[in-house]
Design goal:
Blueprint lengths: L6 E4 L11 H16 L7 E4 L1 H10 L6 H16 L12 E7 L9 E5 L5 H9 L2 H19 L4 H15 L9 H19 L7 H14 L4 H9 L8 E7 L10 E6 L11 E6 L3 H6 L5 E2 L3 H4 L1 H18 L3 E8 L2 E9 L4 H13 L5 H7 L4 H6 L2 E2 L7 E4 L1 E4 L2 E7 L2 H9 L4 E5 L7 H6 L2 E4 L7 H9 L3 E3 L5 E3 L4 E4 L2 E4 L3 E5 L4 E4 L4 E2 L5 H13 L3 E5 L3 H9 L5 E5 L10 H9 L3 H26 L3 E5 L12 H13 L4 H17 L11 H6 L1 H20 L5 E6 L5 H22 L6 E6 L2 H5 L1 H4 L5 E4 L1 H9 L10 H6 L16 H15 L4 E4 L7 H9 L4 E4 L4 H17 L1
Parallel strand pairs: 14-15, 15-16, 16-17, 24-25, 24-31, 25-26, 26-27, 27-28, 28-29, 29-30, 30-31
Antiparallel strand pairs: 1-2, 2-5, 3-4, 3-5, 6-7, 6-9, 7-8, 9-10, 11-23, 12-22, 13-17, 14-21, 18-19, 19-20, 21-22
Length: 885
């Protein structure tokens, strides 16, 4: 039988592993081995590989040969420590800790002081000459073993300790004497027998096997699974188990334990940052029972140990070339390092540390760019909830648009606008939003919806505006009549304060302190470095001059999607839009459209100016016409009310006519109905007006010496003849306007690829289209057969149960939708080699999707303004990662 190594030893005499073996040994095990290789004092131990974890979880038993390798490693430990595992007079005690290949702090389980029993505790007391230390270690072991291995609630042990401290009239665990600790040990054993029906296991070998089982099983505990889902960590990585000889920080005033960072993890400042406790074990520092001391005061209490610790942390940071998170224990005056790992840090700290380390010549620019998670930049661009604030989270939905906002609850867009005029900040709470709510969404500080997903109307518009949004919060029940909503037993009335955390998807009761954000010099530097290497263009989705200007400030190189329908909802425009819809013949429609023409032209001129000569892709009208009319139920209520009071007959007739038009335009499935280019084919005068406004705006600016690059995009094309028919009209109108203005103007006519048939026939489509823009929101919807507004009801279940790895509306489905995009690119360029191709769906701001787009040959991605910096960094990383292959 072929020998397979499952156990890797590290210590003074020999070390099997090294830092590059993280996939096999986990981050903790690999770094312990690396520290041993560097000659840093590390308690000797061994690592059981992640392969064993996966085999154990799959088969519920260990692979052949594992126990023999563990026994061999224990013999080595006994020799190095001159102690015996299971011995009653000179016992070797062990810690058993988890260690995945990436840091998952606090998500899995650890056990300290393993090997103690009723006999060895007496031996430990005699050997150390410190009975209090021995029984303190035993009661800690019973607590951790009882909780982690046997599943007894931690609070059950704590309540016994609290009762004993109360009896003794003391506040701290350290004030309990040896007798009190002996009593606790006996009470803990009684508790274990009561809860499990069995005595606490006295055999150290059995303790070790049960502890290893528990640590492997903790890979699939709920908090670990949640952490993996939130941080995109695969479930098939598994965890290693690290078994180390114990060192003790609880032996008295010459002992202690601490946690520190080689730089400030909150600000990134280059200073030693951490805390420690005298006469304590590791869990005491984070448990909050005692107040830890700042690390710098250790210099006064133990100057020699502090000097050694400084020397070691500097050596570790220089070796690993990153900010380190270290754990240490001082046992009776001797320093031991228990762990080092790349430290978790805030977004601001990540950016500062990366820039500083380049300036210090510790790393190069390429490393700095790859070290920052693109999503972290989001935190720097939006207000955030103060991390120190106390929160009462009353509901959780989808984190549809990042950032945080505080305001008074309102239930209608009109109310939000009215409140804004009087200087009041609001949170707009809706069952779902519609394009008609655009004014209120703009006026509100944040948006909360009961229905909808990550690409719902609320989510898309909020991201474009840079406003926080929590969508799909299905636990909420709204009563518009009573002006309140209820959720999880809590009632929120109109006017009550609410805080939204769009980054986490949390709804928080009351006013919570926010931290403002913005682009600082360090972030500017990182983004400039990103621009030096990336080859993928970054555009923005913007519908107003304000959004366009904001996107330019963030580094956008044009507009990849300008949605013209959002321009129709202004108070001065909606009457003309509705007049056009209500028109019964072409002449009446054109008459109404003439009123809209100057308004549209003004919009386009503002956007062109803001873009300063960069290309602007303008999508002609896309949504079905009924979206611009009042809601059917709202019209019915108004009509019934007027009839009940015998109201104005002309108004009644007007409402009846509009209601009839709403009913006539009603569609069973409007997302697949009379919209997009189908409107342009059946009502060409609508697109004619828009094209005239676009080209007139460009011509007038050209006369002023301002260059513009209009790209006219025809939406929802499914057949090449739809495109050729509509394109013919576009060119006819455009050339007529150019001739009339007597200027030279270049423009392009292209299409959105948002239906599977269009992608599959892209070679035919490219014969007419001069550019493609993949509308991946609708392409995902039609490829999966998911309604993006309704999928939020089941997608979280799909993701939680592993049916899908990600929400396909947030992260591009590369195996399905991505292949349609790839087919579209290949077929399109087979007909038109110089075809310019981009993505303008919400995936244009997702780092994974951006990297996929780079790899398959997109020219650009387009995203909401606040995601432009994220896209710039992700595009640079895509180039660097591909270059490394």
């Amino acid at each position: 039988m072929t020998y397979q190594k499952f156990v890797y030893f590290f210590g003074n005499s020999e070390t099997d592993g090294k830092n590059s073996m993280k996939n096999l040994l986990g981050g903790k095990g690999a770094n312990l081995a690396e520290m041993a290789n560097l000659g840093i004092p590390v308690p000797s131990g061994f690592t059981i590989t992640t392969e064993v974890c996966l085999l154990y979880l799959e088969n519920k038993q260990y692979p052949d040969g594992l126990m023999e390798q563990i026994d061999e490693a224990i013999v080595k430990l006994e020799k190095e420590n001159d102690k015996k595992f299971g011995d009653s007079e000179n016992p070797l005690l062990l810690s058993v800790r988890s260690g995945a290949r990436v840091s998952m702090p606090g998500m899995m389980d650890s056990i300290l002081n393993l090997g103690l029993n009723d006999d060895s505790v007496a031996g430990l007391a005699a050997k150390s000459g410190n009975g209090r230390f021995a029984y303190d270690s035993y009661r800690r072991f019973l607590t951790m073993f009882g909780n982690v291995v046997l599943g007894i609630e931690y609070e059950d042990f704590e309540s016994i300790i609290d009762a004993r401290k109360k009896e003794k009239g003391v506040k701290l665990d350290t004030e309990l004497d040896t007798g009190a600790l002996k009593e606790l040990v006996e009470k803990f054993k009684v508790l274990i027998k009561k809860k499990t029906g069995e005595d606490f296991p006295q055999d150290p070998r059995k303790q070790l096997q049960m502890a290893i089982n528990a640590v492997f099983n903790s890979w699939n505990n709920q908090r670990a699974k949640t952490y993996r889902r939130l941080n995109n960590i695969p479930g098939d990585w598994g965890t290693a188990v690290n078994v180390q000889s114990m060192v003790y920080g609880n032996m008295g005033e010459t002992s202690g334990t601490g946690v520190a960072f080689t730089r400030d993890p909150a600000s990134g400042e280059k200073r030693f940052f951490g805390e420690y406790l005298i006469n304590a074990q590791g869990e005491d520092v984070v448990a909050g029972i005692r107040t830890p001391q700042p690390i710098e005061t250790l210099k006064e209490k133990m100057p020699g140990n502090y000097a050694t610790l400084v020397e070691i942390y500097q050596k570790l940071e220089k070796h690993f070339k990153d900010m380190q998170d270290i754990e240490f224990t001082i046992e009776d005056g001797k320093l031991f390092m228990l762990q080092t790992r790349n430290g978790k840090r805030t977004a601001a700290a990540a950016v500062k540390i990366a820039v500083d380390m380049v300036n210090e010549k510790l790393i190069d620019k390429k490393t700095a760019l790859l070290r920052i998670e693109p999503e972290q930049i989001d935190q720097l661009l939006h207000p955030m909830i103060n991390p120190d604030a106390k929160l009462e989270v009353i509901a959780t939905g989808l984190p549809a648009s990042p950032g945080a906002a505080v305001g008074k609850v309102v239930f209608t867009a009109e109310h939000a606008e009215d409140m804004a005029k009087s200087g009041n900040k609001t949170i707009l709470v809706r069952t779902e939003t519609s394009p008609e709510d655009i004014g209120g969404m703009n006026a509100a500080e944040g948006i909360l919806t009961v229905r909808g997903g990550m690409t719902s109307h609320a989510a898309v518009v909020a991201r474009g505006m840079g406003k926080p949004c929590v969508a799909g919060c299905g636990d909420i029940t709204i009563s518009i009549k009573k002006k309140k909503f209820t959720v999880n037993g809590c009632t929120i009335n109109e006017g009550d304060f609410l805080t939204l955390d769009g980054t986490a998807g949390n709804v928080v009761l009351g006013e919570v302190e926010l931290i403002t954000a913005g682009v600082n010099d360090d972030l500017k530097t990182i983004l400039e470095w990103a621009d030096e290497v990336r080859t993928l263009g970054i555009r923005t989705n913007a519908d107003t001059p304000h959004d366009a200007s904001l996107a330019r400030e963030f580094g956008a190189e044009g507009i990849g999607l300008c949605r013209t329908e959002h321009m129709f909802f202004g108070d001065d425009r909606i009457p003309a839009v509705r007049e056009m819809i209500m028109a019964e013949d072409e002449y009446s429609r054109k008459k109404a459209l003439l009123k809209l023409l100057p308004m549209q032209k003004s919009d386009f001129k503002g956007i062109f100016r803001a873009m300063e000569g960069y290309p602007v892709t303008i999508r002609l009208l896309d949504p079905p016409l009924h979206e611009f009319l009042p809601d059917h139920n709202e019209l019915t209520r108004k009509l019934d009310k007027l009839r009940s009071i015998d109201g104005d007959r002309d108004k009644i007739q007007q409402l009846k006519k509009m209601l009839a038009r709403v009913e006539a335009l009603h569609e069973i499935n409007p997302m697949l109905g009379h919209r997009g280019c189908r409107l342009g084919v059946t009502y060409p005068e609508i697109y004619d007006m828009q094209v005239e406004a676009i080209i007139e705006a460009a011509c007038e600016l050209k006369s002023e010496g301002i260059n513009t690059v209009p790209e006219i995009m025809i939406p929802l094309v499914s057949h090449v003849k739809e495109l050729s028919t509509t394109k013919k009209n576009v060119i006819r109108v455009a050339e007529s306007v150019i001739e009339k203005n007597n200027v030279e103007l270049d423009y392009l006519v292209g299409t959105m690829i948002e239906l599977p048939r269009t992608a599959i026939t892209a070679d035919q489509i490219a014969m007419e289209a001069e550019f493609f823009s993949f509308g991946t929101n609708d392409l995902t919807q039609t490829a999966f057969g998911f309604s993006r507004d309704d999928a939020g009801k089941f997608l979280p279940y799909y993701i939680e149960h592993g049916i899908l790895d990600h929400d396909p509306f947030a992260v591009l489905d590369q195996d399905g939708v991505g292949q349609l995009v790839k087919i579209g690119i290949e077929k399109g360029r087979s007909t038109r080699a110089d075809l310019k191709i981009g993505i303008c769906g919400e995936h244009g701001g997702d780092p994974q999707s951006i990297k996929f787009g780079h790899n398959i040959g997109l020219n650009y991605v387009s995203c909401s303004p606040y995601r432009v910096p994220i896209a710039r960094l992700a595009a640079a990383q895509a180039f660097l990662e591909q270059d490394n292959k």
